[in-house]
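Recall that a protein's primary structure is simply its ordered list of amino acids. Everything else, from secondary elements to tertiary packing, is in principle encoded there. The following example makes that idea concrete.
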Amino acid sequence: AREPSSAPKPSEAMAEVGHFPTDLLGCCNVKDCGCGCCIKLWCCMPCNYGSAIEAAELGPCIPCCICSGLCCVGAYNRGKLAEKYNIDESMGMSCLVHLCCHPCASIQDMNLIITKENRTWGCGGLDYDAGAPAAPEPMQR
């Protein structure tokens, strides 16, 4: 008797292609958006962006915070986000999006990280979402 094949089906072999949770111009549709979110973005955009990139484990917060206004930095990070979260977007498209609408693209990038990494808007950075599991405390002897 022949054993059934354990090879994955074609649909299982390919990872599901993701997408951004909001449209490029969907700045008001981001997770946990409200008056506080808008103020934090207006006043602390570089710090929130750096914190988001660090939360996605794509680099340290400080350099991203300092360089977040540069389209090339945003485009590079967006390309890495697309790769990490399996989003169908080429590096060329990431560059074009950040070149044409850098603030909206940065907000879309941060919202992706907030959604995928279970975070929320904090004061000058991202915090863990209230529903996120707490970090385990070290064992004491």
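Confidence is low (pLDDT under 50) at residues 4-15, 132-136. The helical segments are 10-13, 35-55, 61-67, 71-84, 91-100, 102-116.
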